[in-house]
């Protein structure tokens, strides 16, 4: 079958013919280096990894808003209507609520609206996102973090709108978003529903934090 327009598959993130160990860690032209961040720490000991993922989620949202403003002829509002981050660590529905509470606590610890929180976003941008954008090079990108900074507040506001930054999607919860009804900028947590064909609109491609348990 021919590759459909807009399709993203394994070759967009991995080179199946090259082992990860053989890749240069600073070669962001390689999809696996550009888009995948391995998380070696065990669940429950990975607070810093989850905070890095949340910072990446915020930066990805701000970058979408930057692109919409920078080149409205190329980018449309409908392209960036949704912006989601997925967390799948367990198939047990009882653990999803606990994870959601943990994510909310870590979000607060990131303190995005403080000087310290802004510095941490700037460090992640310069050490990671900026290098990926430069190496991949096909999309509009800011020349500096300062240029992106004005879009951060709007991204954070969109994520924080509503009762929670998280939505839990499982058989016990009625949080499943209706992507046709309204804009969805949320962290979506679930188990079997997320791994069995549930369609999520708007996951960010700029940076994926993955391991066997985080998909």
Q: What's a concise summary of this model?
A:
The chain has 215 residues and is mainly alpha-helical. Helices cover 40% and strands 10% of the residues.
Account of the protein in words:
Helix 2 (47-70) crosses helix 3 (93-110), helix 2 (47-70) crosses helix 4 and helix 2 (47-70) crosses helix 6. It is globular and about 45 Å long. The longest helix is centred in the N-terminal third of the chain and has 24 residues, at 47-70. By secondary structure, it is mainly alpha-helical. Strands 2-4-3 form a three-stranded parallel β-sheet. Strands 1-5 form a two-stranded parallel sheet. The model is unreliable at 205-215 (pLDDT under 50). The protein contains seven helices and five strands.
Which key features would you list for this structure?
215 residues, two-stranded parallel ribbon, 7 helices, globular, disordered C terminus
Strand arrangement, major sheet? 2-4-3
Specify the number of helices. Answer: 7
Biggest β-sheet strands, sense, barrel? 3 strands, parallel
User: What is the total tally of β strands?
Assistant: 5
Q: Whole-number average pLDDT?
A: 86
Q: How would the global form be characterised?
A: globular
Radius of gyration: 17 Å
Structural class: mainly alpha
Element-by-element helix/strand order: HEHEHHHHEEHE
Low-confidence stretches: 205-215
**Strand percent estimate:** 5-15%
């Amino acid at each position: 079958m021919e590759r459909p327009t807009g399709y993203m598959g394994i070759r967009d993130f991995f080179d199946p013919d090259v082992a990860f160990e053989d890749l240069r860690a600073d070669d962001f032209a390689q999809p696996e280096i550009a888009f995948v961040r391995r998380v070696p720490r065990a669940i429950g000991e990975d607070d810093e990894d989850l905070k890095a993922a949340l910072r990446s989620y915020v930066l990805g949202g701000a970058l979408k808003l930057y692109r919409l403003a920078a080149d409205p002829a190329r980018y449309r509002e409908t392209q960036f209507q949704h912006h989601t981050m997925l967390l799948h660590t367990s198939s047990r529905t009882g653990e999803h609520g606990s994870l959601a509470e943990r994510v909310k606590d870590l979000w607060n610890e990131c303190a995005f609206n403080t000087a310290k929180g802004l510095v941490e976003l700037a460090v992640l941008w310069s050490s990671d996102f900026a290098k990926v954008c430069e190496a991949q090079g096909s999309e509009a990108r800011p020349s500096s973090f300062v240029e992106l900074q004005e879009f951060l507040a709007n991204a954070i506001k969109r994520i924080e709108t509503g009762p929670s930054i998280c939505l839990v999607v499982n058989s016990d919860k009625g949080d499943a978003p209706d992507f046709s009804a309204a804009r969805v900028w949320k962290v979506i947590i679930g188990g079997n529903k997320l791994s069995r064909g549930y369609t999520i609109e708007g996951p960010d491609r700029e940076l994926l934090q993955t391991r066997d348990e985080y998909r």
